[in-house]
Design brief:
Elements lengths: L8 H36 L4 H8 L1 E6 L3 E6 L4 H6 L21 H7 L1 H15 L5 H5 L1
Antiparallel strand pairs: 1-2
Helix pairs in contact: 1-2, 1-4, 1-5
């Protein structure tokens, strides 16, 4: 059995430390890019004035500790996104669609592959200094 100090271990250990240092920032940047893209596309996918009003209230907060938060404080958000008409006070919204949504969540599903590519690019960015192909030889 080879001791842990064999060739490549120190390089690997430094690379892991670098990855641990870079990963949070790279992933926060990827999450912010996804959130901005998602909100922009969702705002463009609205079909009614209520949906447009609710979509215009979307905000993105980027925080070092909590990461990226997508928020909507509009009082009509849930009706505009998921519908209503099951109670008298929600008759102004289109029919309820369960969890499918009308503009925000359909946009996420339609762009999931693109968002996954952005996320994967963030992982690659945080690991770019570690050339695992070189270490394998």
């Amino acid at each position: 059995m080879m001791p842990l100090t064999e060739q490549g271990f120190d390089e690997f250990s430094r690379a892991v430390n670098d990855i641990n240092r870079r990963m949070p920032l790279a992933m926060r940047e990827a999450a912010q890019r996804i959130a901005e893209d998602w909100v922009g596309k969702a705002q463009g996918a609205t079909l009614t004035s209520q949906q447009a009003l609710a979509a215009s209230a979307m905000t993105i907060t980027v925080d070092e500790e909590t990461g990226v938060t997508l928020r909507n404080d509009s009082p009509i958000f849930f009706g505009a996104e998921f519908g209503g008409q099951r109670r008298p006070e929600t008759m102004q919204f289109p029919p309820h669609r369960g969890q499918r949504g009308y503009w925000l969540f359909p946009t996420a599903r339609a762009n999931a592959e693109q968002f996954q590519e952005i996320w994967a690019a963030g992982v690659d960015e945080s690991m770019k200094e570690w050339d695992n192909k070189k270490a394998a030889h």
